[in-house]
Every structure is written in structure tokens, then in C-alpha cells.
Amino acid sequence: MKHFITFWLLIFVSLQINATQVSIITNMGNIDVELYDDKAPITVKNFLDYVDSDFYDETIFHRIIAGFMAQGGGFTTDMGRKPTKSSISYEGENGLSNDRGTLAMARTSNPDSATSQFFINFVHNTNLNHGAHKAGYAVFGKVIHGMNIVDEIASQATKSVGPYRDVPVTPIVIEQIVRL
């Protein structure tokens, strides 16, 4: 019986190891993320298409709200908006919650409007889950290393830049996102 349990434990661990992982390399440190390929396949594929095309290189976390989240993946350091691909279908009904350390897609009021921008939840944001107010925000990954960096990002001072509020005073640059 012991060997049987060990066998299944090894299978379970190997399945967990095979989950896609990326590192968000920032000027403040690295944030390693495990993606939920099985629960959010459209969203993960979209995100990885941007990763593989180097789209996120030299973008910024352009919106930081303490006690809430950090949003990035769409603007350059001069607050120029990067052109994106077409939007994707909403996957917020996947059973995943906007918990502390999870990544979700940013979007407009249209649930099917997510493109490249994503956010990292600083806290449990249950109000962003599907059903809280109809469509929520589709979670597609979680931080597995580097929450100390996320917490440091959360503490940054912000300002307004033109029409944009909550912009970090000192730019938080996503130098690159790479697959691990």
C-alpha cells in the first residue's frame, strides 16, 4: 500500500511541476508565476503569445492601488499605449478566485475585452470574482515566488499623469517576461 500511495504522490507532484511558469522580471526584482493552463486555456494562451513575442519587454505597472492591485502590460515608460491583438473571450467562470497573489486579466466593462493588460491582486478581492457583479475578472495564474516584490510594489507612491491616476512616481518596469 505504501508503494501505491508513493506512486500516486509522485504522479501528482509531476503534474504540478508541468504547469507553465513564467518570471516577470522587473526593475524591483523577479516575480515567478504559475499559470492555470487547465482552468483558463484561452487566457493563458493569449498571455503566452504576448510573452513569446516579447510584447511585455519595457512595459510598466502603470496603476498601483495600495490594498487592491497592480496593473500592467499595456503602457511604456512614457505612458504610451502599446498596440494589442484582438480581445479574447471571458473565462471568469473558471472557478478561480481573485485571491492575494493571483493574476487576472484587466478589461473594460465588456467581459470579452481583455487583451494584454493584467493585474496582480495585493489582497483577496472577492468583489472581482465572477458572480459578485455579474462578470468578474478572469484569474489565470498565481505568484509562486516573489510576493515580497509584489508587496514592495504595493507600497510605492503614486501620482496622476495626464488622464491616468495611481501611476507610480518611480516607474516599475517590466523588463521582460520569460517562460521558466
Structural features, described:
The chain has helices spanning 2-17, 41-52, 147-154, and strands at 21-26, 29-35, 59-65, 69-76, 102-105, 118-121, 139-145, 158-161, 164-168, 173-179. The protein is α+β, with helices and mostly antiparallel strands and 180 residues long. It has one domain (20-179): Cyclophilin-like (Cyclophilin, Beta Barrel). Strands 1-2-7-5-6-4-3-10 form an eight-stranded antiparallel barrel. The chain has a two-stranded antiparallel ribbon with strand order 8-9. The longest helix is centred in the N-terminal third of the chain and has 16 residues, at 2-17. The mean pLDDT is 93.
Keyphrases for this structure?
single chain, 180 residues, alpha+beta, Cyclophilin, eight-stranded antiparallel barrel, two-stranded antiparallel ribbon, 3 helices, globular
- pLDDT < 50 runs, ≥5 residues: none
Q: What's the alpha carbon Rg, rounded to whole Å?
A: 17 Å
Strand order, sheet with most strands: 1-2-7-5-6-4-3-10
Structural class: alpha+beta
Number of domains: 1
Tell how many strands the DSSP assignment holds: 10
CATH topology: Cyclophilin
Distance between the termini: 35 Å
- Give the CATH H-level superfamily: Cyclophilin-like
Classified by CATH, the class is Mainly Beta
Question: Largest sheet, described in full?
Answer: 8 strands, antiparallel, barrel
Residues in helices, as a percent range: 10-25%
Mean pLDDT: 93
Total DSSP helices: 3
Proportion in β-strands: 25-35%
General form: globular
